Amino acid sequence: MQIGLQIPDFTTPDGPDRLGADLATVARTADEAGFDFIAVMDHFFQIRSIGPPERAMLEAYTTLGYLASCTSRAKLLTLVTGTVYRHPGVLAKIVTTLDVLSGGRAWLGIGAAWNEEESRGLGIPFPPVAERFERLEETLQICLQMWRGDETAYRGIHYQLDRPLNSPQSLTRPHPPIMIGGGGEKKTLRLVAKYADACNLFPGPDLTRKLDVLRAHCDAIGRDYDEITRTCYFIFDVGEKGEKAAEMVDRLGQLAGLGFQAALGAVADVWQVTPLEVMAADVIPAVSSL
Question: What's the predicted TM-score (pTM) here?
Answer without folding.
Answer: 0.94
